[in-house]
Structure formats: structure tokens, C-alpha cells
Amino acid sequence: MRTYNRYILALATVLLLTTIGLAATGEIRLDFYYTIYLIECLILTSLFSHVDTRAQRGLNIVSYLLLAGFGFIVLETVAEILLGTSML
Amino acid sequence: MKAQDDSEPDASKAFSYSNIRHHNDDRDRQWYRTLGIGLVVAGAGLALVSFFIIDAVALVALGLSMTILGTISLVLNRTCPDTPQGIALLLMETGLDNTASLIEELGLTSRAIYLPSSRAGGKPQALIPLDLNGTTPSINNPLPRRLIVKYGNAPEDIGLMVATPGSAAISMFQSKPPATAAGVESALSFLLVAAIDAARGVKVFDNNGKFTIVISGSRVPQRNTRLQDCLGSPLASIAATTTSEALDSPVIIKEERLSKGRLQIDLEVLSENV
Q1: Fewer CB within 10 A of the terminal residue: chain B, N end or C end?
Q2: How confident is the model at residue B20 (pLDDT cuts 50, 70, 90)?
Q3: How many CB pairs under 8 A join A and B?
Q4: What sign does the CA torsion over B207, B202, B96, B248 have?
Q5: Interface ipTM
């Protein structure tokens, strides 16, 4: 279990530092925050998820959900360009 | 490995594996669930309030990251084993006690030969010869998966073939480890450090067919019993089984030494048997 604890701690640290860093630089694009979170999650998950097949399966589902969120951001941006209106 | 000087069962050691410093899975499960639900609820609330009321992007992002972290915690909660660790320890104790009784009853003193799955009926097993006479037996043909097996032509070439902690651990590999020192090191690191959390680090050195495995930060206590004299400690058993399976050759634990928190295991690969 210590591996999973390390994974959670690493992820929490990275996400928090990213949020603080981006907020400090005055970043106001939510999709940019989300994309950075997605990349960090995928990297850390691929580093830690090899330990257990059940964990790997579960974390893969989370990764797909996060990618679906990214797809939504892309669609929203495309719609904004084409239609000139934001879905949010 | 030290010899045991009495054959009487030692009640004080009967459940010493229960002393393994382990995390309670139920507590871990509860912790992941509580953390997950807390982070998802708080994160979603923060994100919604920040987005619709406060209009602060940084706080929305913080809420999002909390929600992601919470979801991952909930997923990890589901990966905790269904069998409580206490029960698993009791089952392991029972299995090892039965094997110890068998070995003591038969008066076996030989060191076990760890056989790969290809030579032990599809599952890695340890062969304890009844009488070695100072020679290492040649095991040229695959042995049937039975308790008492005949491994040679001579009448005394009979041994006991038993499952070891390594036999069960090997099933955690998705594929056969590569037949190199680096491959064995990688496989053992995955198994002992990441999967079963029994040690902090593993190093493997190959000295012309003699493998030396150094396990640091071992969390499994050593016992001085006849079972351990034959099979080696649980960590040595796992190391021997993994090496045997990787090299597809029989392996003997020549020596085990524990010094300064490091367990050094010397393995001899019986490559001439191939």
C-alpha cells in the first residue's frame, strides 16, 4: 500500500504546485490548467500503476474520463471558433 | 542458514510472521474512501462556487484538481484486496506450519532445489531431496507435480516437492522475467518493493552462474527453524523462485546473511542440469 500512498502524495504535490505556479503567473484559462493536470496525471499514473492489474484497470478508466474532459474542451473551443459562442 | 538444534515445536515462534510490520488493509481502504469522498465533494463544491459565484479561475482549478485526486483515491480504494491481511497471514502460517511438520517428521535436512515451472509440472516448486550425500542431484527431466517424486535413477533419488512462498508470488508476473541479472533485479523489485511491499530495494549481481541478491529494508522477519534451513526465508524463497523461473534452471540457496539491515542471498544456478 505504501506505493499507492506515494502515488497519491506525489499527485497531490504536483497538482497543488501547478495550481500555485499557474495562479502566481496570472493564468486565467481554465482549459490550460486542465490540460496541465491531465498531462501530469497521465505521467504519474504510468509511473505508478504497474503494481496491480486491478489498480491499472481503475486508473485507466480515470485516464479515459480525463481524456473525455479534454475532448470536451477541444469541442468547446472548436464550437467557439465556428459559432462564435461558448458552451459554458 | 543456521541449523535448528531441537525438533520440538517452538510455541513462541508459532505466529511470528504475524509480526510483519504491515499496513492494515481495512484501515487503508477506509482511508482511501474517506479521502476520496471528501476530496470529490469539497473539490466539486469549490469548483462550482468559484466558477458561478466568485468567478476565480485559480480556485476553480484547485477544485478540479481536488476532484481528480478524490476520484483516484476512490479507485485505489477498490483495489485493496478483498481478503483481509490477517486472514492471509494466518493461511500462510498454516501452510508453512504444515510443510514444517512434514519436513521435521521426515527428518529432512537437505537444502531445497528450486525448480522452474517447466520442470515442476507447470508451477514453480521446491524439491527437497531425502538424502543428498553431499552431491547435487541432476534433474534432467520434468518432474510430475506430486508431493513425493523420484528425480533420478538411483533408489535413493527421492524427494519431497512442495510449494513455497515464491510459488505463489510468481503468479503476479504477467510474463516470464528476462534471463539476465538486470531482468531478475527488475522482476524482484516489482515483486518485493512495488507489489507486496516487503522490502525497500533489490540489487542482483551475476558472478559466473552464482547470483548474489541483496535485499535492503526487508520487512519480513527471519526465523531460525528447520523449514527455513531447507527452504530459506520467505524473501530468499521468492528470490530463488524468480531467478529459477527467469533462467529456466534449477537454483539452490547457498547462503543467506543478514547484516546492517541488508539480506544477502547467494544462489547457485544448476545450469549443468539444463
Answers
A1: C
A2: very low
A3: 82
A4: negative
A5: 0.90
